Amino acid sequence: MAEAMPILLVPGLASSPRIYAPVIPALWRCGPVTVANHIRDDSMAAIARRILAEAPPRFALAGHSMGGYIAFEIIRQAPERVMRLALLNTQAVPDTPVASERRRGQISRVEAGRFHDVLDELFPGFVHPSRQDDPGLRRLVHDMGDDIGPEAFIRQQTAVMERPDSRPTLSAIRCPTLVLSGDQDATIPNSQSVDMADAIAGATLAIIPECGHLSQAERPQATAEALVSWLRG
Q1: How does pLDDT run across 108-143, given as a tens digit for each residue?
Q2: Alpha carbon 12 to chain centroid distance?
Q3: What does the DSSP 8-state code read for residue 92?
């Protein structure tokens, strides 16, 4: 029996290990699963360095949303350690001036004690239109926010605003890669996923139907099946 491949999962902005909970049982059958801690630093380079210091020598890497930005930085710092790569509901482009200004406004409101208000503002963009009134998903977003706390949210937003352009990284990726998105992701349009998949040699593109930005929570079975296929392919 072949040795199991360690699997390293990186959550997104304002997100905790809870986001991967619906798919971890399926992944666990493929190898030991770790969820990275990405809340302690305020730059992509520092976050990636700390994750690499705590990670297995070689691993399959999956990053969701901001976790994808971190995955790109891990690839830049230690490409030889990444055996497989999954990019979930993410993008390779840097922040736009409009997006950065919006983030600065969110930071100001969080500093004023309105963290849950900001989470409520983000929620409509996180889920498929049919789930706008889903109390379980809204509770998940609030619970994950409470897991990381407002100070970590500010550090994350700072890192996201200052992230580099990862498009030049794409053509250098040589490991088996899955690019996954929802068909109605209102936070990061799946056109970004199409562009990434086109730029990464041999990448597999999966667009999950009836799904928004939180693919693991909204469509766990379809997302888990795509991830297991990636791990076993």
Answers
A1: 999 999 999 999 999 999 999 999 999 999 999 999
A2: 4
A3: S
